[in-house]
Amino acid sequence: MYTKDGETYFIVDSHIALWDGRPENQRNVHGKQFIDCFYDYHRNLSPESEVWSYEEYLYQGGERLMRDVFADGMVDHAIFQPARLAEFYHRGFGQTEEAAALAAAHPDKLTYNHYWDPRDGENGLDALRAAAERFGLKGVKLYTADWHGESRGWKLTDPMAYRYFEACRELGIRNIHIHKGPTIRPLDRDAFDVADVDHAATDFTDLTFVVEHCGLPRLEDFCWIATQEPNVHAGLAVAIPFIHTRPRYFAQIMGELLYWVGEDRIMFASDYALWTPQWLVKRFVDFQIPEDMTEYAPITTAQKKKVLGLNAARLYDIPVPAHLRLPDAGEPATGPREPAAADLASV
Fold first, then answer.
1. What is the CATH number of domain 13-341?
2. Which pTM was predicted?
């Protein structure tokens, strides 16, 4: 937990990873391009005091993760969101076995989410069922721009993707995290477009679609979708480091999200190890919308508490001490409806 000025914040980091970008795991030049692009984001958006060397950035391991995220990072719970990237890395980029073992050893602190790709077909469905049983999955992370043979992306609206959504529904996997944000070399930008979220969220109202990186650089498109689809949430991974380099831009991001999407559907994420959570948490607690940006309301302490942890805790049934809980805010006036109300209205 983090306490500042008499206020205590329950912190859930909703997007972390345990990756291996070392040369021995790179299958080809694309593996190096990918981790180099990650490092550029890290180096360019971090305070100088938080920049790692390139060598330590390639691989962290579980011991360092536990220190960076929990001991030093003040996080109460964190959620693994792995990316496979099997075309770029021999053992994949996200380290399934190590991350899952770490989560099993620390169930009070870590939740392991898995991944699927509809291009794996029937075999992939079998693998998803096995993973759900093995890991007790509550969520998955989807990477629509991942390469697969000759294919350089897929859409949430693909017929086979719908088979996987149906399987998630049957298996109790309710939280669908989707990378819909800035491109990463050599992946294709358009494969991360947010447009297909609208269709899938309408057809699977009992699933929660967490759009990681809140659709950047397509923030406006994302907001127009999320305001009409009450099961669409915003993840702040990659967005929140702009609190350091572009604070007015970050103020615009938060102002738009709070106006359109509402305080109950925005979630903090450090995207570890792209960034470590400690400085992000501290900066966010201290952050305020500049007074001259009058189109946006000030961010309240209660809103910050929800974004920093309470919203993700609700999605993942993470226990929160009673004295730190807050009531839901209800719907913003701009459009979202409760899922049940929306379903009834369509009957």
1. 3.20.20.140
2. 0.91
